[in-house]
Amino acid sequence: QLQLVESGGGLVQPGGSLRLSCAASGFTLDYYSIGWFRQAPGKEREGVSCISSGGSTRYADSVKGRFTISRDNAKNTMYLQMDSLKPEDTAVYYCAAQYYCSGPVTSWGQGTQVTVSS
Fold first, then answer.
1. pLDDT tens digits for 66-118?
2. Beta strand 46-51 pairing with 33-39
């Protein structure tokens, strides 16, 4: 059974940092692109970042320069380092397996809450 499990969310002050993790089980991440998405209350889910199986990365303009996506295939885990967090980054963050970035999602994680507030 394909499964993705996120961790690392929490409450942080503006300007702070968090690192989200996404661990895969039941399949290897090597051949997948992995995306991070987020959904704030009352808003649609949006793409935040994606890393391809070859290591190419892309970011939404709203997080470019502040977020860094990476993967550790040996640990079957990918990460989202979030720095200089803003209140508007508050959302539930989901990781997802895709055959290619911008492609359809084949598996979603359960989500982890990130709250940026003083």
1. 999 999 989 999 999 999 999 999 999 999 999 999 899 999 999 999 999 99
2. antiparallel
> CA 64, CA 79: separation in Å to the nearest integer?
15
Nearest to 78 by CA among 4, 3, 18: 4
**3-7 and 10-12 as β-strands: parallel, antiparallel, unpaired?**
unpaired
Lookup result for tokens 């989901």: 94
Rounded Cα distance, 64 and 7, in Å: 22
Cα–Cα distance between 97 and 84 in angstroms, integer?
26
Alpha carbon distance 9, 95 (integer Å): 12
> On the CB side of 93, how many CA atoms lie within 13 Å of its CA?
30
